[in-house]
Amino acid sequence: MTYYILLPLLKLNMILIFYPFNLVTFTMVLLYSIVKLKTNW
After folding, report:
1. 15: Cβ–Cβ under 8 A, 6 or more apart, which residues?
2. What residue ranges do the domains of the chain occupy?
């Protein structure tokens, strides 16, 4: 279960490093992570 939580966080970290000002990408990944977590439950 922790793997599914850590993987989106790692992706989020990478996006924040490479695109620090890209809020659209940030929100899209955030929404994607929430949807993934909800489907995994």
Report:
1. 22, 25, 26, 29
2. 2-40
**Full-model pTM:** 0.40
CA dihedral 35, 6, 12, 37 (to 10 degrees): 0
* Paired tokens of 30: 């955030």
- pLDDT, tens digit (0-9, with 9 covering 90-100), for 15-35: 666 655 567 777 888 888 888
Cα gap 16→1, rounded to integer Å: 24
Burial of 21 (0-12, 13-18, 19+ CB in 10 A): exposed
The pLDDT, as a whole number, for residue 4 is 74
